[in-house]
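Feature request, filed as a ticket because there's no other form

It would be nice if the structure record came with a short human-readable summary line next to the tokens. Right now we just get the raw output. Example of a typical job, pasted below so the devs can see what we mean:
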Amino acid sequence: MSAETTATAQLPADAGSLLSQSLIETGRLLRRWTRQQEVMTSTLMLPVLLLLMFDLVLKRSLGAAAGVDPIYGFVPMIAIAGAMYGAMGTGLSLYGERQSGLLRRFWVLPIHRSASMLGRLLAECVRAAVVTLVVVAIGMLLGLRFQQGWPGFFGVLAVPVIVIAGFTPAVILVGVSRIGDKVVQLAAIVVLIAMFFNSGFVPLDNYPDVIQPIVRAQPMSCAIEAMRGFVLGGPIATPLLQTAAWSAGLAAVFGVLAVRGYRAAAES
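Raw output as currently delivered:
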């Protein structure tokens, strides 16, 4: 029996709880991401630049069509898209860990096997909350106002976290694949395209009739409507439940595949 197999088989009883080890992994990832340019760019710089561009270039024309300040659609849209696009950067980071053999080294350590993936999920949720907080702060400088007070503020922060909790297993599955770098870049393009086909960019009625059902049902639109409800008031329960359903569905579909892909990447 090899030394790696022995280390894998003999897990000490005092290895620590799954939660504590997951939190350690979360901290490691957050510190690592702050030193990675691609992650910081996709997490902070891109959402801020997109929000400023949309507000400065499109606000006047879209405001006339919507009848309400477009900032109330821009902020939720950029927060959701920024959280999802930022996950693409961390997907590339995961692919780099696979190529360097870091995943394999972690795999043979006497720790909970689930700690790495759970820690990554928690780190992604923290990153999504940070993205949203930054976008909301810039949005408030541009005229965004919370008419629902602090409950609305915390509701807005929670929605992207719900979205990214379901989106992360798909990112993990892509990141640990042998062609993860190419697939991650393709997925990032899809996210950017989806940013122009949701209810936050323009009102749903402005889209052609044939694609309105698609725009209405896609997960970004549900999340945007929930966030807009938290800010301005209006329907919250239905879009929030739809967002949670999308997240749970994605987690259920890609969760098992992500675990299998992670195991295969770590053992290869």
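Something like this underneath would help us a lot:
The two ends are 17 Å apart (CA to CA).
Residues 1-15 have pLDDT under 50 and may be disordered.
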